[in-house]
Design goal:
Number of domains: 2
CATH architecture of the largest domain: 3-Layer(aba) Sandwich
Radius of gyration: 20 Å
Helix content: 25-40%
Number of strands: 13
Low-confidence stretches: 57-61
Number of helices: 12
Strand order of the largest sheet: 9-8-7-10-11-13-12
Order of helices and strands: EHEHHEHHEHEHEHEEEHEHEHEEH
Mean pLDDT: 92
Amino acid sequence: MSLRIAYYGNCWMTNLGEAFIDIGAMELLKQALPESDIIFVTPMSHYYNNAMRLQSRKTFTSKENCFRNAAHLGLYIKSDLFVMSGMFATEEFLRTGSALYWVNDFLKSHPDMKVLFMGIGAQQYNQKEVKAFFEYIEANVNLAGFISRDNETYALYKDLLPNCHPGIDCAFFVSDVYNPCGFSSKDYIVSTFNNMPEPDSLRSSKDDIIRPQHMFYTAKYNEDIKNIFISDTPYDYLSLYANAKEVHTDLVHATIVSLAYDIKVKYYHDSRRSSAFAAAGATTDGRGYLHVSREVLKDRKCRMKDTVRKLLYP
């Protein structure tokens, strides 16, 4: 049976990691449900509608009116299934995020539509967050299934939600969509840090260092930083990572796409969201570099596809 699937995209310009998730998730759906049709919808018209008014020198209306005045594509489409991927099992999404100004209206306008949470992660990983998300599901969602992106998130919900399964981050599927590996003519290192300064040890590298900005909508120019990389398409960034000699970063999704392309990567942060690496089978060597074997990653991706299909065609 063919399904009309509405896939919920997110904020590519404000956080490039969301683009990697969306590109991978769309590919996962195509592989798991090849007979279905998919439409891509986002809440970003609301976000930018509000942002433009906040930046205006003219008098602007309240934030609520800004959101109300934005066109809501979801109210003009029909869908059998709504799919969300990424960090949605959070209070931020429920209290201040797009649940308030996009998702709730979409769900209310499609009362028979089922919802699949696919490759989902938490933020705080605490009981307060779990309680808030569980109560939201019970009150608002016709749940088709919940697939985590890390084992910690799965452990939090496996006894609460029906059809709850362990999975991996959808960004691991980017290499199935787009494979630009093998084009490098010269060695270079990728370095991207948002939570800490770039390590001094990288400055002694004999290779060129390229420094991508993942939050390019709010990126600030610094003339002391050389080889800054900014683009309005995520495929530019995927080309960059796929051909790097190695990657150094404190960003979860810079790490994940590096692993997807089998690029040597060192992760410097301690975010609990990094448990997504282990869920895909990644291990750390004695020098601190992460790696995942192609066989293990292929197996985890096949399991994810099987889970999606079985949830929708039991």
